User: Which sequence fits this backbone?
């Protein structure tokens, strides 16, 4: 046990200080916390690796009030990776429909933006946009955790288009 | 003529030519279905392992079945004669149950019918297409089945008092790839687990057709992101064999180094996640920081965190100056001592041991029957590792020790990862200290005739296999990359029953299989 404690103290606090860019014109709601439901719509799992990195001690996204949640009913943001395969179309739509308003959609990675290397395959939809309305896109193959973090920050307090 | 009345053939072993860049590999063409089955049987009974089966429409319909022996890699290529109805091929499942899912995939994607296959449920295609998509010419629209007509997947159900069913997925809780699991449960105990995969099917084999080599290599690098180096090396080897080209020693060393960096990053990530799933958050943050340090070093020295697109047919796109080599050596020293510390903590932690030991046991004889390789296989006494067996240069010069355990439980898979980490670090050090002064990339020769090649490499999860058919002028006419996940998913189905539902995430993590690499 002491080995474990020694390790913890020797390691210290690694979480890096981050600047937060807040747009003051945005409506309340996504101000201090954001719950994200991630759906992998057929990615190569490269984007998932970088998403998972956001929870390591260096980025510690949850310390900024952003956390990944399981139930779509708790989620403010739908974060989609992958080119949206034909078989993930339904599950993706259902997840989106289960989310309460206000809600946003962020497409992460080249695949989710336009299909990426899988573009124009018979089995994919060339990204999220053909399936559900996308608010933000983040290209990159895969984008870095820092880029993903900044893209998530954009969701905070920004005017949101009205939608049913 | 032999006793069956067939013309005498060269025994497979004679077709193998030793190669500098790895294990000998050969494609054996077949025209007679019975001979194909017989050869598959012979390869299996001479100690071979089945690695995968796929089809190709180029130049004419063929079934390709891959077997790994200690002597080398053999791929049987059975030509399918034209027929009035659908083309058929003999199923290997009577003696090789692992072939079943692959044959179902061929049926879904090409429409070739496996004769003798009992389970004819749609697999990767999930019944989505009205016509087999790869039976159509490239670019042609593929008619889809109406959603309302899609039948429910007929899972095998268990009945009896108190038995109920838990469906999970395709969307999982957390940052994971999509797939469906159906548990038959009584109380807390799992009686049966059945997987339904195919949710990440992106039509990769179709996308390969007609691509230039460079753009096909980009696609191959994205078969499964966590194995990008392994997939890229296997693909590059296949192209290089097809062009009768051997990469320079400098390129081979750097490839080996990148492959070990990929293995180290993944093993670090898995060990952290396994600690976390067993209730030790400390493990996740400690291994998370080590992995992040490594990724940042990748960024600094190679320009990318995950090593996408660094390995290309012909060589590698990375060069190391002396300062970089020293920095990487320093990193290895640091990681070696950190991993040793953490291993002691894992070893001594009663809570972890309690969750790890005797959970998710894959018995050695079952592992052998299923043909499990890689980390999962080695944790169940399957002594296969391409790097130690016959890796070619540079592995022959610095062979890593084979990591092996016999218990087959989660703890064994954790231990294998610890052992392999240390071996990987030692191998990386040896590679860095002996980097040859050779060119690292050369232009590929041109080919005037169509040709084919194979590649195989020990990725972090197990053997990654690639096959390529080149048309003249460096255009891919067909290709297939096979991640070991496809072989290992059935093993997970076997391992879970008898365990508690709550242990499934832990067992699943200890396998850490790729959905994308399975569904292609
Ligand atoms: S964008 Fe790149 S890394 Fe992300 S899922 Fe697509 S291919 Fe993989």
Assistant:
């Amino acid at each position: 046990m002491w080995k474990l404690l020694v390790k913890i103290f020797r390691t210290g606090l690694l979480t890096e200080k981050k600047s937060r860019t807040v747009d003051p014109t945005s409506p309340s709601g996504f101000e201090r916390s954001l719950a994200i439901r991630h759906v992998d719509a057929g990615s190569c799992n490269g984007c998932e690796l970088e998403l998972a990195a956001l929870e390591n001690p260096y980025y510690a996204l949850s310390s900024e009030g952003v956390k990944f949640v399981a139930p779509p009913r708790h989620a403010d943001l739908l974060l989609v990776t992958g080119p949206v395969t034909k078989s993930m179309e339904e599950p993706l739509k259902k997840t989106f429909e289960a989310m309460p308003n206000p809600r946003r959609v962020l497409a992460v990675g080249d695949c989710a933006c336009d299909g990426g290397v899988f573009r124009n395959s018979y089995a994919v939809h060339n990204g999220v946009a053909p399936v559900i309305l996308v608010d933000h896109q983040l290209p990159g193959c895969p984008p870095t955790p820092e880029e993903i973090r900044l893209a998530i920050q954009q969701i905070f307090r920004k005017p949101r288009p009205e939608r049913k | 003529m032999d006793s069956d009345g067939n013309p005498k053939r060269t025994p497979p072993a004679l077709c193998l030519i030793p190669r500098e860049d790895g294990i000998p590999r050969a494609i054996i063409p077949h025209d007679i279905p019975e001979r194909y089955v017989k050869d598959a049987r012979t390869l299996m009974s001479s100690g071979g392992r089945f690695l995968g089966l796929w089809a190709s429409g180029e130049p004419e319909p063929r079934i390709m079945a891959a077997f790994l022996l200690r002597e080398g890699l053999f791929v049987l290529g059975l030509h399918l004669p034209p027929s009035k109805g659908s083309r058929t091929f003999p199923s290997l499942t009577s003696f090789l149950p692992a072939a079943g899912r692959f044959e179902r995939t061929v049926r879904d994607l090409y429409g070739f019918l496996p004769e003798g296959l009992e389970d004819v449920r749609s697999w990767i295609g999930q019944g989505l297409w009205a016509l087999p998509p790869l039976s159509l010419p490239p670019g042609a629209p593929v008619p889809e089945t109406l959603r309302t007509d899609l039948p429910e997947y007929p899972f095998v159900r268990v009945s009896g008092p108190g038995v109920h069913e838990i469906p999970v997925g395709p969307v999982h809780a957390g940052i994971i790839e999509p797939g469906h699991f159906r548990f038959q449960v009584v109380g807390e105990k799992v009686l049966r687990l059945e997987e339904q995969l195919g949710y990440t099917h992106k039509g990769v084999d179709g996308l390969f057709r007609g691509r230039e080599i460079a753009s096909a290599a980009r696609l191959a690098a994205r078969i499964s992101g966590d194995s990008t180096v392994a997939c890229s090396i296997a693909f590059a080897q296949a192209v290089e064999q097809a062009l009768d080209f051997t990469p320079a020693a400098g390129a081979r060393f750097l490839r080996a180094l990148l492959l070990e960096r990929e293995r180290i990053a993944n093993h670090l990530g898995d060990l952290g996640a396994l600690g976390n799933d067993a209730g030790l958050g400390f493990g996740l943050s400690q291994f998370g920081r080590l992995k992040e340090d490594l990724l940042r070093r990748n960024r600094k020295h190679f320009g990318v965190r995950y090593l996408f697109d660094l390995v290309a047919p012909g060589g590698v796109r990375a060069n190391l100056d002396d300062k970089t080599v020293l920095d990487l050596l320093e990193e290895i020293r640091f990681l070696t001592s950190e991993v040793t510390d953490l291993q002691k903590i894992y070893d001594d932690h009663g809570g972890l041991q309690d969750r790890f030991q005797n959970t998710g046991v894959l018995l050695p004889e079952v592992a052998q029957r299923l043909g499990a390789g890689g980390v999962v296989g080695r944790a169940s006494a399957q002594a296969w590792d391409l790097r130690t067996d016959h890796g070619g240069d540079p592995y022959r010069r610095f062979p890593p020790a084979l990591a092996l355990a016999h218990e087959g439980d989660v703890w064994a898979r954790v231990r294998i990862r610890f052992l392999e980490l240390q071996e990987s670090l030692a191998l990386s050090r040896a590679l860095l200290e002996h980097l040859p002064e050779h060119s690292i990339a050369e232009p590929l020769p041109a080919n005037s005739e169509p040709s084919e090649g194979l590649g195989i490499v020990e990725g972090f999860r197990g053997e990654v296999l690639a096959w390529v058919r080149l048309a003249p002028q460096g255009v891919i006419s067909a290709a297939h990359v096979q991640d070991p996940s496809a072989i290992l998913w059935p093993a997970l189905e076997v391992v879970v029953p008898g365990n508690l539902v709550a242990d499934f995430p832990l067992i699943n993590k200890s396998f850490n299989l790729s959905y994308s690499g399975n569904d292609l």
